[in-house]
Structure formats: C-alpha cells, structure tokens
Write a structure and sequence with these properties.
The chain has 250 residues and is α+β, with helices and mostly antiparallel strands. Helix content is 28%, strand content 25%. It has one domain: Creatine Amidinohydrolase (Alpha-Beta Complex), CATH 3.90.230. The strands form 4 sheets. It has a 5-stranded antiparallel β-sheet. Strands 1, 2, 4 and 5 form a 4-stranded antiparallel β-sheet that branches. Helix 1 runs antiparallel to helix 2 and helix 3 packs antiparallel against helix 4. It binds 2-amino-4-trifluoromethylsulfanyl-butyric acid (MF3) and cobalt (II) ion (CO). Cobalt (II) ion (CO) binds next to loops.
Length: 250
C-alpha cells in the first residue's frame, strides 16, 4: 500500500476527530489521581468517546479488550485496564486512545504523573513529549520521512534514553494503521518524500534505561526488559508545505 494523500473533506473529518480526541485526553488527564484503577480510566474514556458519537477504535482491534491503553511505569504501551490495578502516588501512567469520527481516525497518547513524581520521571515525560515536537519540525513537504525519525532519535539520545525500536508510528486515516511505518530512531536512508496532506500518527516511546522491550503473558502489555520507566507521546498530524498541523491537541 502506498502513502495516501487526503482530500480536504477527509482532512476536515480528521480535524474533527482530532479535536474530540484532544478533549478526551484533556479530561482523562484531569481524572488521574492516586487510588483510581486503570479500569476506571478505560470506562471514563469510553464514555467520553461515545458521548461525542465516536467509536473507540482500539476496542476489539486485533482482539484488544478495552477502549484506552493504560500503561503504568515500566509498561511501555498496550497495558490492559484492570479493576485490580490501582494507581499510586509517584507512578507514571501512559494513556493511548483512538477515536473514529464519521469513518476517520485520530490516535493520540499522553503520559501523566500520578500525584508527586520523581524528577527523573518528570524529565522522561517532558523529553518524550519534546522528542515528538523535534520530529514534527521535519514533517513538511520537501522533507523525507526518516528526517522525522532521525530528529526524534537524536533528541532522545542526548538524554541517554533508550528509544523503543520494536514499535513505530504510522499513517492514519480511514484506517488506524496505514502506510508508512514511522520509526522513532535513526535510519540509514532519508526514506520516502513527504507531500502535503499526508496524515501521520507520530508516537515516540522512550525508556529511562535500555531500548529493549518484551511482551507479557497477556500478549498485549509491552514492558521494558530492564524494568525502567517508559513514557509515550503521540499526536495525529497533517503534513503541509509549512508547519505541520497537529490535530489531536486543543
Ligand atoms: N497508538 C497505538 C498504535 O498506534 C494504539 C493501538 S492499541 C490497540 O498502535 F489496542 F488498538 F491495538
Ligand atoms: Co498510534
């Protein structure tokens, strides 16, 4: 499959989807506090998404059993919400959510601190977010796809963080996952050329320690192999001929 260029109609639907998702994340962020379960977050997220008349895109995707991926501490992504998993002061929690609005997807992730967190955890969260912004500086017509990857990876490396290589960002539109795959680490080549009105979900995942990850028995939850903290930050964007447009922020 090739990288598709979206029409203005499609872009407008994706803008709507993005705005809704941004609001869902905003509200979930305010809901985070010690004592709630990861299932509480999923239930609130699903309600918010359906309240907008959207479909939670992750629910039943390849058998994933929830609407929001909730990943705590050394969990990188795809944590499965559970009533038994209670957030504690000092934890960090990554929320990944996707919505479908009139047939079009938006996908975004945020990592939050639970109550007071360590300076090390705070820095990881901030650098992960900033690595996304470093990457999208390259997301414009005339640049190449892996310029984004290289910028994210180079920024993360300055802090000594492990960049997860086994999971990548992706094109997005009528489908949650479209071509191309978008790595978050240095590539040998510059990759395909970027054209305006391509739509991407760019999602760096950074570990305090080594980049290696493994899958838990549930076949979903991805954790760091060395047990160090991991953070995730993702938005859906439109490539333009100037600055990219970030759809999933307010
Ligand atoms: N942001 C993740 C991704 O792009 C969300 C997928 S989780 C799943 O892959 F549950 F839907 F698989
Ligand atoms: Co994604």
């Amino acid at each position: 499959m090739a990288i598709t260029i979206k029409s203005q109609r499609e872009l407008n639907l994706m803008r709507e989807a993005g705005k809704i998702l941004a609001d869902v994340h905003e509200q979930l962020g305010r809901f985070i506090r010690p004592g709630i379960s990861t299932l509480d977050i999923d239930q609130k997220g699903e309600k918010l998404i359906r309240g907008y008349g959207c479909i939670p895109s992750f629910l039943n995707y390849n058998g994933y059993p929830a609407s929001i991926c909730v990943s705590v501490n050394d969990e990188v992504v795809h944590g499965i919400p559970s009533a038994d998993r209670i957030l504690q002061e000092g934890d960090i929690v990554s929320l990944d959510a996707g919505v479908i609005y009139k047939g079009y997807h938006s996908d975004a992730a945020r990592t939050h601190g639970v109550g007071q967190i360590s300076p090390e955890a705070q820095q990881l969260i901030e650098v992960t977010k900033q690595s996304f912004f470093e990457g999208i500086k390259m997301a414009k017509e005339g640049m190449h796809l892996y310029d984004i990857s290289n910028a994210i990876g180079a920024y993360a490396e300055r802090f000594g963080y492990g960049v997860v290589t086994e999971l990548v960002g992706h094109g997005i539109g009528k489908n949650l996952h479209e071509d191309p795959q978008i790595p978050n680490f240095r590539q040998r080549r510059r990759g395909p050329k970027l054209y305006k009105n391509m739509t991407f979900a760019i999602e760096p995942m950074l570990n305090i320690g080594r980049p290696d990850v493994e899958w838990l028995e549930d076949d979903w939850t991805v954790v760091t192999e060395d047990g160090t903290l991991s953070a995730h930050y993702e938005n859906t964007i439109i490539v333009l001929d100037g600055e990219p447009e970030i759809l999933s922020i307010l």
